[in-house]
Amino acid sequence: MDKREFKDKVYSVLSQMVKAMANPHRLEIIDLLGQGERSVEEIARETNLSVANASQHLQVLRQSNLLQVKRKGNFIYYSLAGDNVYKSWKDLREIGLESLAEIDKLIKDFRIQKSSLEAISFDELMTRMKSGKTILLDVRPEVEFNSGHIPGAVNIPIEQFLDRTEKLSKSKQYIVYCRGPFCVFADEAVQILSQEGFKAKRLQEGFPDWKANGLPVSSIQN
């Protein structure tokens, strides 16, 4: 094998992996699985796909070794093949945020609508948590919170949020996080809190980004 043939083959194999990711549904699936393993049915529900369609996308990702699969009883569960898979998505997302004005505008327009334009960095979060005046809220589903969350966070899933705000103290400040910059749960929660007279802001990134930065993680074992 000469050097040209070697390069052609290496880049060809890598391009197939990139091609597997080059689909909006499959990118969303990778983002979702950054929270932890999920069944095919759960993935279909969270991404608003049929089970058959979700299964097809999952097979494409698995064939490129981006996902791993295991069976639990009658259900098939998928997870990311490694932390580097999420990191590759995170890097792509950051390139998009820095280079594509359309993405930045979409996010700003949506957050203005939800009263959540100002977002908090991880460094600022850690400073505020030390004051004792800030409560950190995780509004992801309970299964994701149990799989892993930022230490000290209180889980109030977004679908329960309206019913549980009456138990929150208005003497505290609230920082809300969810799955990441493209997840809207935190924006919806901040809007609800702001409308009810609470001081609230969203975290700029989500739990998988916190974990990817090597920061401490808590979990609840079932």
Automatic annotation (TrEMBL):
One of the record's GO molecular function terms: thiosulfate-cyanide sulfurtransferase activity
PROSITE patterns cross-referenced by the UniProt entry: HTH_ARSR_2 (PS50987), RHODANESE_1 (PS00380), RHODANESE_3 (PS50206)
Residues of the HTH arsR-type domain: 6-100
Family annotation (Gene3D superfamilies): Rhodanese-like domain, Winged helix-like DNA-binding domain superfamily/Winged helix DNA-binding domain
Rhodanese domain segment(s): 130-219
Coiled coil: none
Pfam families xref list: HTH_20, Rhodanese
InterPro entries (UniProt xref): ArsR-like_HTH, GlpE_sulfurtransferase, HTH_ArsR_DNA-bd_dom, Rhodanese-like_dom, Rhodanese-like_dom_sf, Thiosulphate_STrfase_CS, WH-like_DNA-bd_sf, WH_DNA-bd_sf
NCBIfam families listed in its UniProt record: HTH_metalloreg
Name this protein carries in UniProt: Metalloregulator ArsR/SmtB family transcription factor
Organism: Paraflavisolibacter caeni
Species classification: Bacteria, Pseudomonadati, Bacteroidota, Chitinophagia, Chitinophagales
